[in-house]
Amino acid sequence: MHDACGVVGISFNETGKSVAKSIYYALYALQHRGQEAAGISVHDGKAIRTHRGMGLVAEAFNDAQIALLRGTVGIGHVRYPTTGRSCIENTQPFLVKYKDGAIAVAHNGNLVNSCQLREQLEQAGDIFYSTSDTEVIAHLFVKELLRHDLQEAVRALMRKIVGSYSLVFLWGDTVLGVRDPLGIKPLCIGELDSGMMVASESVAIDTLNGRLIRDVMPGELVVIKHGQI
């Protein structure tokens, strides 16, 4: 049995506490949701740093690579391909830079209008480096962030993308969790001793000795900053 990808986002409230190892363990717990590739993005206080690799979580990362991902907030992803070729270019999280900064996004689900949206973006001059619909989501979200505040940018994004999805974004030092309006793809909230997290399944929360708070509601945006919602 295969599930289409697993996502996790964690924010710690302790300065200097590294989040990458916790994301690694959470992804390990979600390994059954995707075995093709894995990736982690963290914000180090100045910029987003990302490592992605093919294979199982234990194959995609080693201790030295995790040690380089310094920061107290980050997101992670394990991939089981539903769209896009099996290659490192389609591995998540995706990082998109724009004039106000950068965002990283990880996605579980499938968009039914991905091709139409990609064509519209390409006609507007956007350049894509993968065949994944997650990169389409990242480009769309950046455009909405340039036009609106966070809440309205998310609402505008959700009006444009059609399908089933759960999303985690790393936006500066903030983790965003978004679930599709029908609640088809899972996403839950957990409390840790030193912060908060969202994940595709509660097993990721259990692995970090956390406490399940609740499911993210259909169509809900969850904002986690400095370890608090």
Reconstruct the topology from this structure.
Elements: E1 6-12, H1 20-29, E2 37-43, E3 48-54, H2 57-60, H3 63-68, E4 73-79, E5 94-98, E6 101-111, H4 114-123, H5 133-147, H6 150-160, E7 163-171, E8 174-179, E9 188-192, E10 195-199, H7 202-207, E11 211-215, E12 221-225
Antiparallel strand pairs: 1-4, 1-10, 2-3, 2-4, 5-6, 6-7, 7-8, 8-12, 9-10, 9-11
Helix pairs in contact: 4-5, 5-6
What does this molecule look like?
With 229 residues, the chain is of the alpha+beta class. The protein has a single domain (6-225), classed as Glutamine Phosphoribosylpyrophosphate, subunit 1, domain 1 (4-Layer Sandwich). It has helices at residues 20-29, 57-60, 63-68, 114-123, 133-147, 150-160, 202-207; strands spanning 6-12, 37-43, 48-54, 73-79, 94-98, 101-111, 163-171, 174-179, 188-192, 195-199, 211-215, 221-225. A hairpin with a 4-residue loop joins strand 2 and strand 3. Helix 4 packs across helix 5 and helix 5 (133-147) packs across helix 6. The protein is globular, with a radius of gyration of 16 Å. The mean pLDDT is 92.
